[in-house]
Amino acid sequence: MVALGTKAPDFSLPNVVSGTTVSLQDIKSDRATLVMFICNHCPFVKHVMDELVQLGRDYIPKGVSVIAISSNDAEQYPDDSPEEMKKLAQEKSFPFPYLYDETQQVAKAFDAACTPDFYILDGSLSIVYRGQLDDSRPGNDVPVTGKDIRTALDALLSGSPVSQEQRPSLGCNIKWK
Fold this sequence. Notes:
The chain has five helices and nine strands; from the N terminus they run ββαβαβαβαβββαβ.
């Protein structure tokens, strides 16, 4: 995993819903930015999808920028194509942009490994959290709460240090080309 304190790599990617190109510099927050590597087809992402949308609804009004990125190979996984991404974002009413990383360079720059994978950046775009949403997994009967992300965001927003004790995400591997 990328070291805490690492500056987040800048990126510029197409938003599949609006058709515009979005850069990290354009949409970053001076308080906190949550970058989520997700996709459409992964059962781990499907399991937490409603909580991801709720995170956006809960934290965007608090000044957090939330960004979802899919870096999967859409040729091998057509459910993860920009067209299907747009349908899902509209169906679930994403309150955040859903960006397509066709070259997979952004996922590589972040050292993202799976979907879902989460990174929280502070106001200076240093990575202060990288890891799991919470302890819930498909079939383990643990409720989806977003506890780990919510705890880290709440700490950052209150000016407290984010705990260095962080558990890696678990999910489907990013589908590399």
